[in-house]
């Protein structure tokens, strides 16, 4: 894996966080056009652009400026390249911060991502993302769905 490959993959990880925080759900879905998202807090699998876009649009509360008023911080990226370089696994940690009119600035969720990327005809793309939520704070102003 080259330095350029690593930057491209990091950009996909960080773009995911930015698209969630800015409620760019169409663009978020496009990141997963050929991929699946799973999570430990649901048995659902979200496959493809439309399912990812529609679930995030439905599940995340949005406020007057149109965003969920969150900020995802992604750290501790660990890269593994099994099998020759056209597939890369990245484990990372995330912290989600939120501040609304009812909730002061605080961490509301922490956990780990387990992402798999593949090199496609147009460059690197997500193949899968697993979201492992390990800590939950005050989620009352964040989601339209229940998780525990």
Q: List the helices and strands in order.
A: HHEEHEEEE
What's the average pLDDT? Answer: 96
Task: Strand order, main sheet: write it out.
Answer: 2-1-6-5-4-3
| Envelope shape | globular
Detail the poorly predicted runs: none
Q: Kindly state the percentage of residues in helix.
A: 25-40%
State the distance separating the first and last CA atoms.
38 Å
Number of helices: 3
Radius of gyration: 15 Å
β-strand amount: 35-45%
Main β-sheet description: 6 strands, mixed
Structural class: alpha+beta
- Number of DSSP strand runs: 6
Characterise the protein shown here.
- With 148 residues, the chain is α+β, with helices and mostly antiparallel strands.
- The chain is built from 3 helices and 6 strands, in the order H-H-E-E-H-E-E-E-E.
- Strands 2-1-6-5-4-3 form a 6-stranded mixed beta sheet, covered by helices on one side.
- Strand 5 and strand 6 form a beta hairpin.
- The radius of gyration is 15 Å and the shape is globular.
- It starts with a helix and ends in a 12-residue tail after the last strand.
- The model has no long low-confidence stretch (mean pLDDT 96).
Secondary structure blueprint with pairings:
Layout: H1 3-21, H2 25-31, E1 36-39, E2 42-47, H3 48-59, E3 70-80, E4 87-98, E5 106-120, E6 123-136
Parallel strand pairs: 1-6
Antiparallel strand pairs: 1-2, 3-4, 4-5, 5-6
Question: What is this entry, summarized?
Answer:
The chain is an alpha+beta fold and 148 residues long.
């Amino acid at each position: 894996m080259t330095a350029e490959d690593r930057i491209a993959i990091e950009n996909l990880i960080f773009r995911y966080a930015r698209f969630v925080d800015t409620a760019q759900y169409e663009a978020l879905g496009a990141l997963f056009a050929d991929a699946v998202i799973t999570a430990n807090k649901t048995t659902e699998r979200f496959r493809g652009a439309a399912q990812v876009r529609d679930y995030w649009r439905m599940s995340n509360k949005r406020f007057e400026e149109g965003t969920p008023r969150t900020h995802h911080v992604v750290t501790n990226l660990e890269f593994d390249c099994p099998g020759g370089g056209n597939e890369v696994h990245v484990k990372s940690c995330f912290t989600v911060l939120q501040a609304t009119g009812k909730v002061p600035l605080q961490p509301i969720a922490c956990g780990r991502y387990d992402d798999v990327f593949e090199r496609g005809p147009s460059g690197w793309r997500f193949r899968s993302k697993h979201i492992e939520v390990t800590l939950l704070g005050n989620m009352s102003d964040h989601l339209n769905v229940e998780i525990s």
